[in-house]
Design a protein that fits this description.
The structure holds two protein chains of two kinds.
Chain A: H1 13-22, E1 29-32, E2 51-54, E3 58-62, E4 83-90, H2 93-101, E5 107-110, E6 114-116, E7 121-122, H3 138-144, E8 147-151, E9 163-164, E10 179-181, E11 185-190, E12 193-199, H4 205-210, E13 216-217
Parallel strand pairs in A: 1-2, 1-5, 5-8, 6-9, 8-10, 12-13
Antiparallel strand pairs in A: 2-3, 3-4, 6-7, 10-11, 11-12
Chain B: H1 9-13, E1 21-24, H2 34-43, E2 48-51, H3 61-67, E3 71-76, H4 86-92, E4 97-100, H5 103-115, E5 119-122, E6 136-139, E7 142-148, E8 152-162, E9 168-169, H6 178-184, E10 185-195, E11 215-218, H7 225-230
Parallel strand pairs in B: 1-2, 1-8, 2-3, 3-4, 8-10, 10-11
Antiparallel strand pairs in B: 5-7, 6-7, 8-9
Helix pairs in contact in B: 2-3, 5-6
The chains are: A alpha/beta, B alpha/beta.
């Protein structure tokens, strides 16, 4: 079966980030991965306060500074210049991962290469023989943070499914993902597998099923 | 009298022998003791094992140390970045060994090493290839991986202010791995932007107490690695 892509509208990167932000509760301590997850900071819903943690030692991370105001000693985990908000604190790596591994960070938003129907996440290596493994803090985050959101395009650039029955790439963590925000849909990981939560505009249940390499349960009617 | 001040970075690293295990502080360029690393390049010790979060950028600092053929093995969490090319080339050519350690496990191994804790269990890496061959223990219904503490012969560290006893304060996110590395090395060598008079550091603000520090050198205007890279500098 072929899908007419011109009819599929979907969400932009910004909209995916905004949807993720809307699902983060007021007062949450949040760690954001590199890439699309960084956009979450632009969409904090009215009346909510999030505190951003960056694993290189800053709680209370603010937006990027104005051009010319960058400080090479005030950066985020992606090594980009950031600011510190009022009430921010600095700490060393031991304490930073005490926050992560110790369960003190409420929500982490990450990118993904593959997500299995059981919530397994692969986002650090393709396992290719010439690949240079680089894990950073991803394995600590998925092991220690209670709620793991993934923001990702639904398929790879080549159209391969990222939502699969079983990950073929080396895992970052097993049964760790809570919810996926893709350009096509919001999908929950449930004990029964992938369950559709919300469709992007112009996207049908069948469109999403077509691009998902695992069974997808329809939206649960309450 | 205790006085840990040393006149030059060259003197500070002069006794690092071939084959030493050296922790180097910093996360990317923030907190990287670049002048001490360059002194280690000039000194020429070879066959080193280096513990750092990354593998350096461009052809300065840690990347230059690796490029100069002085490093046998890297222990790190993230060996590539947009400006790192030296390590990937050597790694693909089979000329350098890599032990990949998740960032939090790396930090905790260093902290454990410094605290006299030989090993600990963590949930990080369970059910992943990085747990292959490691002892797994189930504690209260959850699986954990046994990880060993890390110690080094030397640590190279950058800080903001120091006094002659080796009490240290840091600047913003340049703190990162530096304080824990101070605790885990036989000889801890620090470059500080300022060495202040004893008593000038507020005891409430001291992050690294002097007991963890052996040598201090003042480097009042340290280089910024990203600027060197923009200028096309290759060390030496």
């Amino acid at each position: 079966m072929t899908v007419d892509n011109s009819k599929v509208k979907g969400w932009t990167r910004e909209q995916m980030a905004e949807l993720a932000a809307m699902d983060i509760p007021d007062g949450a301590y949040v760690n954001l991965g590199i890439g699309i997850p960084e956009l979450v900071t632009k969409f904090v819903p009215e009346g909510r306060e999030f505190i951003y943690h960056t694993e290189n030692g800053l709680l209370g991370m603010g937006p990027a500074p104005e051009l010319g105001q960058e400080d090479s000693e005030l950066i985020n985990a992606g090594k980009k210049a950031v600011t510190a908000v009022p009430g921010a604190s600095f700490f060393h790596h031991g304490d930073s991962f005490t926050m992560i591994r110790g369960g003190h960070i409420d929500v982490c938003v990450l990118g993904a290469m593959q997500i299995s129907q059981e919530g397994d996440l692969a986002n650090w290596s393709t396992g290719a023989p010439d690949a240079i493994p680089a894990v950073g803090g991803a394995m600590d985050l998925v092991a220690g943070v209670k709620t793991i959101f993934v923001i990702s395009q639904h398929t790879t650039k080549n159209g391969a499914a990222k939502l699969v029955e079983k990950c073929s790439y080396p895992l970052t963590g097993k049964k760790v993902v809570t919810r996926i925000f893709s350009d096509l849909a919001i999908i929950d990981i449930t004990p029964e597998g992938f369950r559709l939560r919300k469709l992007a505009p112009g996207v049908t249940y069948e469109d999403v099923c077509e691009k998902t390499d695992a069974p997808l349960l329809p939206i649960k009617e309450n | 009298m205790i006085d840990k001040r040393i006149d030059t970075v060259a003197q500070a690293v002069a006794d690092i022998p071939d084959g030493a295990v050296v922790m180097i502080g910093g996360f990317g360029e923030a907190g990287s003791p670049t002048e001490l690393i360059h002194a280690l390049i000039d000194h020429g010790a070879k066959n080193l094992t280096i513990i750092n979060n990354n593998t350096g950028n461009g052809e300065v600092g840690l990347a230059a140390l690796i490029g100069n053929g002085q490093v046998r093995k890297m222990i790190c969490s993230y060996p590539r970045s947009s400006h790192s090319k030296i390590f990937p080339e050597l790694y693909r050519a089979g000329k350098i060994e890599l032990e990949i350690v998740p960032q939090g496990t790396l930090a905790e191994r260093i902290r454990a090493g410094g605290a006299g804790v030989p090993a600990f269990y963590t949930a990080t890496t369970v059910d992943t290839p990085l747990a292959d061959g490691k002892e797994i223990r189930n504690i209260d219904g959850r699986d954990y991986v046994l990880e060993y503490g890390l110690k080094a012969d030397y640590a190279l560290v950058k800080c903001e202010r120091a006094d002659r006893l080796g009490n240290l304060t840091y600047n913003k996110t340049a703190r990162n791995f530096n304080p824990i590395m101070c605790t885990a090395a036989g000889i801890t060598i620090v470059q500080s932007k300022r060495i202040v008079t004893l008593g000038d550091l507020d005891p409430e603000a001291i992050i690294t107490p002097g007991v963890f520090v052996d040598r201090i050198v003042e480097v009042s205007v340290p280089v910024i690695e990203s600027r060197l890279i923009e200028e096309g500098v290759c060390y030496p």
